[in-house]
Amino acid sequence: MSAHSDSAAPAPVRLADYRPTDYLIDTVDLDFRLDATATRVVSRLRLRPNPAGRAGAPLVLDGGGLKPLRASLDNLPLDLAAVATPDRLTIAEPPQRPFTLEVETELDPSSNTQLEGLYRSNGTFCTQCEAEGFRRITYYLDRPDVMAVFTTRVEASKEEAPILLSNGNPVESGASGPGRHYAIWHDPHPKPCYLFALVGGDLGSIEEDFTTTSGRKVKLAIHVEKGKEHRAHYAMESLVHAMRWDEFVYGREYDLDVFNIVAVSDFTMGAMENKGLNIFNDKYILAIAETATDADYAHIESVVAHEYFHNWTGNRITCRDWFQLCLKEGLTVYRDQEFSGDQRSRAVQRISDVRALRAAQFPEDAGPLAHNVRPDTYCEINNFYTATIYEKGAEIIRMLRALIGHDAYHAGMALYFERFDGKAATIEDFLGCFAESSGRDLGDFARWYAQAGTPRVHVTGVFDAQAKTYTLRLSQSTPPTPGQTEKKPLPMPIRIGLIGRDGAEIPLVQDHAHNWREEKFGVFELAGPERTIVFKDVPTPPVASVNRRFSAAVILEQELSEDDLLLLMAHDSDPFNKWQAAQSLASRLMIRSTAAIRAGEMPEFSDLFALALADALEHYETDPAFAAQMAALPTENDLARDIGTDVDPEAIFLARKALRDGVGRLLSQRLLTLYDKLQSDAPYSPDAASAGRRALRNACLDLYAAGNHSDGAEIALSQFQRATNMTDKMGALSVLSRLPTPAREKAMESFYRAHCDEPLIIDKWFSLQATIPEPDTLSRVKRLTKVHAFNIATPNRVYALIGAFANGNPYCFNDVSGEGYQFVADLALQADGVNPQVAARLLSAFRSWRNLEAGRRALAEQALRKVLETTKLSPDLRDIAQRALA
Ligand code: TRP
Ligand code: ZN
């Protein structure tokens, strides 16, 4: 939202209050005359009373700080002063038949720093309308259930903006007066205004032809800053793969003659799925070996796919209201995760998706900002583009599919596409399709959308040597969350395997299997508070591998001994649980060390763990990227979450460091050998196998250096100097960044000199320095906010420096002095004057403040209170501060 005010936050919007609009908009004709500071917009709306609305009701259109110039109804001028304010246009008694409303507004895109509505990024005119940005362009019924056919004419200086784009297909273009030209775009698919987009600028383009399965010829184009065209090819490849995948897996084809992507450098989020004209944060488009890491490539592939997949899940079928946001976001994240799994290693994709879920969504669900996947109420919708809506939303679809099976899932999706195409739908509409395709009552399953908090599943197992049975008892409970004390059980799929002491899989035999999926896939349903499963013909005491592939999005509490975990780590045929066993064992060791350190004792170490880890790394051949995941020990934030309350981030940091240093020392030789063996002289290729080898090699160096500082620094420095791709360069620099050597500062300097012209690389440089776990990092970060390359108005810079410090450096952010909290709160306030959405995201770093030990908790609270006491807060920042403190 835009307007800053001294008054309290706006009244909350409630799902229960939904009612259809009183008027519908059939067509929208827009005419833009682009100008840096005085753009003129004429909007001509064909309206009619909504048969589902209240007859004779006034027409109230939303505006967002608009400057109206004139308005007319059926060509008769209206008295502007009587009908329009900057935030609203009201027609008290509109005709009860179709009518036309024409309004002209004037905008200043150059002074728009909120990056919502029409703004300029590096001179390019562009728009961002989701969720409620269209009202900052013209008066409208700015809500997703109002779907209209848009025709857009854009006129601009030919020199300043040779490229003029909008939604749909190009219809006409030509000259219009001295130095000016125009283009007309028509989008035949009715859509809500949040999917509107317009771009005008002097951009460089790459193009490609695509023919859909049914023979439609589509011109694909990606437009980037001039001179960066050669960095757009990987994004184009990803787009083509995504288009083919959606045809093949979901039977969905593209539906226009052109598909345009524009990359801009000022963008609040990742990207936006505007119909036929996706607009991207350029960090999710631009990549060549010298500038982007393997992780950047993977992100590009998944974000390009995500936005493309929205064409069906989001655009053709949209949301009835913003409470249904997960209808498009959860489903589309699920689809992009599956796509990436098919392009790369399924196991590694699952592990990194779960890592992300645990890192971002679990803390949200366990803290004061917890909310349902479908909220019942919100004050500021922009604050609900959260890990819960996106990532937990995706997990719900994955669980649904595991419960009803592949065939019923795809039959349900086909039904959904058929029944709701061109409509604005709800979660009930969506679930209804799967109830029908599976013949199952999904009433209980729907609770996943209505109940916040992460369920805990407790598992115990008893072996009966005489009867040769193994009895597994599962029980579930969900802790209370703000405003929701009573929690009911949720239906969840738990994938199970049994492993013998010899490491071999034991077949699952039951007297009465509940359904064929249990027998065939080992997927068991836990629907009520508890369930007991008796397995027969179990020869020896097994170890249960529970929640394989992370089939249910829960916290698993299973009593496993260290021997059990070592067995799973070595033998589990499910790669996710093999990885999980290593994580659990490492986490257990480090949590015990954390307690020891707080008690003034020595941290723990386990040779057995380290040796098992070395074995796993050396067996990397089938999937080196998986081995690299094994090497990555739980993060400090992972440990803080597992500890839960009375968290001491400094003790956690020391405990983790002790384990890493110990592993690095004990495994020195083996790590070095592996590092050398993985060396490759082949030219860079971003494919998954090559990326996996680089990831593993860099992980070996990282662990080695943790245990061998001076030697490690030397190897890292030499890798840094020789690297011909950004992955190896950053791998080396990030190892150096954790070593307090003079080589570090020199490497940082030379990196800056080499890349100071490239903002996306300077972001990496900012982030690395912000995450150095040393006491003087805060003063370093403060210094960096003063360098020329930093700009509070550019979201990528703010996330790279301040976001990385607040979320990626728990040791320094949580410094006992409280200065880390003060700094981040101050920066959020500073950002709030420029871009409230960015400010609100920064402040969300406080989401786990209540779990801290008493001293830090008091200091964090103080920082949050100071924010709330500030006058002129945006609704966005106020909403986060208020909920965090509630
Ligand atoms: N719909 C976008 C996506 O997930 C998200 C998005 C892009 C967004 N820009 C935004 C959400 C600005 C809110 C505000 O693909
Ligand atoms: Zn999305």
Automatic annotation (TrEMBL):
A biological process from GO: proteolysis
Obligatory cofactor(s): Zn(2+)
Keyword Kinase: no
SUPFAM superfamilies: Leukotriene A4 hydrolase N-terminal domain, Metalloproteases ('zincins'), catalytic domain
Broad class of enzyme this protein falls into: hydrolase
EC number annotated for this UniProt entry: 3.4.11.2
Known catalytic reactions: Release of an N-terminal amino acid, Xaa-|-Yaa- from a peptide, amide or arylamide. Xaa is preferably Ala, but may be most amino acids including Pro (slow action). When a terminal hydrophobic residue is followed by a prolyl residue, the two may be released as an intact Xaa-Pro dipeptide
Keywords on record: Aminopeptidase, Hydrolase, Metal-binding, Metalloprotease, Protease, Zinc
GO molecular function: alanyl aminopeptidase activity; metallopeptidase activity; zinc ion binding
Positions of the Peptidase M1 alanyl aminopeptidase Ig-like fold domain: 453-558
Domain Peptidase M1 membrane alanine aminopeptidase: 234-447
Keyword Protease: yes
Domain Aminopeptidase N-like N-terminal residue range list: 96-195
Stated family: Belongs to the peptidase M1 family.
Protein name: Aminopeptidase N
Gene name per UniProt: pepN
